[in-house]
């Protein structure tokens, strides 16, 4: 299993393509904060604004008419906490990503790659994404990356599931383990920024020192292609 130990990343670029507001924070917020702090330009793309989310705050204060705008504001606040360079939306309706014309979606994402010229692309695994929107955006982003043909592709994973990659058909060499210990405060702040989704998570709103204990030291990624550099790093 490879552990990342990056040097200065000034001038390097990371593109993270996800499905919903909060994907970036809940899944790999520590990694985004780490690389942003080390100088990388991090761009987050959200396919939707999460308007079909079931959580409306606690107690509920949103509805189907107001939730999309609220979640966009929350996402922008979370990105500020993580040091994200730029945020883009694909303006797809929540829970419909799998029904969008695939070629058109691939083309839009590929065009972004040519515009941004990322060294690293993060997205969902098309089978291990856990949600139809996740899997669909991961599949399209992977296809776009193959056409783009530059840089390194990694798939996000949930929690510590990839501590035992053999369960999912991977060897330890296919997994990159990112130490995000120094960036957990930024990740927690991003969790809290997604207020309407995280208010039902009691641990998030505990005293900081207690809440931070619930965040793991490592975030895990699956290699989507052979690293260009061969180093134990996303870059």
From TrEMBL:
InterPro entries: GlcNAc_PI_deacetylase-related (IPR003737), LmbE-like_dom_sf (IPR024078). One of its GO terms (molecular function) is hydrolase activity, acting on carbon-nitrogen (but not peptide) bonds, in linear amides. Gene3D superfamilies: LmbE-like (3.40.50.10320). PANTHER family: N-ACETYLGLUCOSAMINYL-PHOSPHATIDYLINOSITOL DE-N-ACETYLASE (PTHR12993:SF11), N-ACETYLGLUCOSAMINYL-PHOSPHATIDYLINOSITOL DE-N-ACETYLASE-RELATED (PTHR12993). This is Bacillithiol biosynthesis deacetylase BshB2. It comes from Paenibacillus barengoltzii G22.
């Amino acid at each position: 299993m490879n552990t990342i130990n990056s040097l200065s990343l000034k001038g390097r670029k990371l593109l993270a393509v996800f499905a919903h507001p909060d994907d970036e924070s809940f899944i790999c917020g520590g990694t985004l904060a780490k690389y942003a702090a080390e100088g990388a330009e991090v761009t987050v793309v959200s396919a939707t604004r999460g308007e079909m989310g079931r959580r409306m705050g606690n107690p509920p204060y949103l509805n189907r008419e107001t939730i999309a705008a609220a979640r966009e504001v929350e996402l922008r606040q979370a990105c500020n906490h993580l040091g994200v360079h730029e945020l883009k939306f694909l303006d797809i309706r929540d829970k419909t990503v799998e029904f969008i014309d695939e070629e058109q979606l691939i083309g839009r994402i590929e065009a972004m790659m040519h515009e941004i010229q990322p060294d690293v692309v993060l997205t969902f695994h098309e089978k291990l994404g856990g949600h139809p929107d996740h899997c669909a955006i991961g599949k399209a982003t992977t296809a776009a990356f193959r056409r783009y043909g530059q840089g390194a592709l990694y798939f996000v994973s949930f929690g510590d599931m990839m501590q035992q990659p053999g369960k999912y058909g991977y060897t330890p060499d296919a997994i990159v383990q990112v130490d995000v210990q120094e960036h957990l405060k930024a990740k927690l702040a991003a969790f809290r920024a997604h207020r309407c989704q995280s208010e039902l998570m009691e641990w998030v709103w505990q005293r900081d020192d207690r809440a931070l204990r619930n965040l793991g030291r490592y975030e895990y990624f699956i290699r989507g292609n052979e690293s260009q550099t061969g180093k134990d790093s996303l870059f």
